[in-house]
């Protein structure tokens, strides 16, 4: 069994934007907005560094488990006037971006990089959105096992 690939991509996580269409003469032109491109470049750079450092030379094959923990900066109202975190400040990030769109941005980026053949191989994993002191995403990729927990 291949060892897992784990890394942290520091930066403000962005969601995969939906495809948009616009009229172009008599035709419709479909395009993807570039709002997540900076975030995807960060993920790509960190994934490539981790892949190379782990000594991997071939993409992951077979069913995969990908765990993603997204960290978002806390808003000012989570803190007291003296800078301390309020005891009532939530741990879970329930605002936008949506969890599934955040997941999509990362998986598409890793697919384009060649970490695996296709993101349809990802069939297991946990996705979390939390508040944290350092925005980014902790990413763990490993072969899916046959046991269920």
What descriptive keywords fit this protein?
alpha/beta; 60s Ribosomal Protein L30, Chain: A; two-stranded antiparallel sheet; 28% strand
| Oligomeric state of this protein | single chain
The CATH first-level class comes to: Alpha Beta
The CATH architecture: 2-Layer Sandwich
Got a strand count? 7
Unreliable segments of 5+ consecutive residues: none
CATH topology: 60s Ribosomal Protein L30, Chain: A
Mean pLDDT: 93
Helix fraction? 10-25%
**Helix- and strand-based class?**
alpha/beta
Largest sheet: 5 strands, mixed
Domain count, please report it: 1
Separate helix tally = 2
Strand content: 25-35%
Q: Rg from C-alpha positions?
A: 18 Å
What is the CATH homology-level superfamily?
Holliday junction resolvase RusA
Q: How are helices and strands ordered from N to C?
A: EEEHEHEEE
Specify the overall morphology.
globular
Terminal-residue CA separation: 19 Å
């Amino acid at each position: 069994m291949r060892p897992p690939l784990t890394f942290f991509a520091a930066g403000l996580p962005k969601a995969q934007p939906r495809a948009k269409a616009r009229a172009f003469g008599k035709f419709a032109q479909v395009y993807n907005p570039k709002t997540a491109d900076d975030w995807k470049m960060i993920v790509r750079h960190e994934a490539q560094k981790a892949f190379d450092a782990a000594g991997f030379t071939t993409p992951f094959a077979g069913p995969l488990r990908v765990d993603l923990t997204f960290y978002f900066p806390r808003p000012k109202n989570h803190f007291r006037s003296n800078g301390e975190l309020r005891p009532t400040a939530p741990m879970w990030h329930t605002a936008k971006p949506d969890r599934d769109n955040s997941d999509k941005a990362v998986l598409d980026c890793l697919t384009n990089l060649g970490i695996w053949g296709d993101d349809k191989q990802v069939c297991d994993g946990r996705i979390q959105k939390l508040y944290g002191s350092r925005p980014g995403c902790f990413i763990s990729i490993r072969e899916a096992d046959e046991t269920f927990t």
